[in-house]
Design goal:
By secondary structure, the protein is of the alpha/beta class. The protein folds into two domains: 1-43; 49-183, Glutaredoxin. The chain is built from five helices and eight strands. The strands form two sheets. It has a six-stranded mixed beta sheet with strand order 1-8-7-4-5-6. The protein has a two-stranded antiparallel ribbon with strand order 2-3. A hairpin with a 4-residue loop joins strand 7 (152-156) and strand 8 (161-166). Helix 2 (84-100) crosses helix 5 (171-183). Residues 45-183 form the Thioredoxin domain. GO terms for molecular function: antioxidant activity; oxidoreductase activity. It holds the Pfam family AhpC-TSA. It comes from Paenibacillus athensensis. This is Thioredoxin.
Length: 184
């Protein structure tokens, strides 16, 4: 028969092992996303390249255009409603946009061919998106940007030049990158 002390010690050891395993999985996934972003950059759309221009209809019915010179820098975030990491980053996108919306634009481009309109609307509503949600209905903009995974975001300066390609980041790192973009 196990003593109470032995059971407590075993429970603590098990809890510690689970915490460490969870952290290892998180680190592995984070590294994989960073490697995929670097690979996407190697394929042609990385830092210091011109962001492809596009015009898309938004979920709000308006038409939005990106590319070339702008008044403010922008973040172009490619996402889908079924994407787990997109759900993970949504609250941070909302927070950073609300804090800096006068200093940068954020276009959330839904990769619509692989999504459903009802799911898109629910995702936007559930996450409180107040920035434009654009619909890439034919997938042509996604093809132009040549990314590998979603979510992928392109940080574009006022001159239409991609400054960085990112995937899901912790909130403080995302904010630091947006502040750097605004200052560029």
């Amino acid at each position: 028969m196990e003593s109470k002390t032995t059971r407590k010690r075993n429970a603590l050891v098990l809890a510690l092992v689970l915490i460490l395993a969870g952290y290892a999985v998180y680190q592995s996934l984070h590294k994989k996303h960073q490697e995929e972003a670097a690979l996407a950059a190697e394929r042609g759309l990385g830092a210091n390249t011109a962001a492809p221009g596009f015009t898309l209809k938004g979920l709000d019915g308006q038409t939005y255009t990106a590319g070339g010179e702008r008044d403010k820098p922008m973040m172009i975030n490619f996402w889908a409603s079924w994407c787990g990491p997109c759900v993970e980053e949504a609250p941070d996108l909302v927070k950073v946009y609300e804090k800096y919306k006068d200093q940068f634009d954020l276009y959330a481009v839904n990769v619509t061919p692989g999504d459903k309109m009802d799911n898109i609307r629910k995702f936007v509503q559930d996450n409180g998106y107040s920035f434009p949600v654009l619909l890439d209905e034919q997938g042509t903009v996604a093809e132009q940007y040549r990314f590998i995974v979603i979510p992928t975001s392109f940080l574009v300066d006022k001159h239409g030049v991609i400054r960085e390609v990112i995937n899901v980041l912790p909130a403080d790192q995302l904010e630091a990158k947006i502040k750097k973009l605004i200052a560029s």
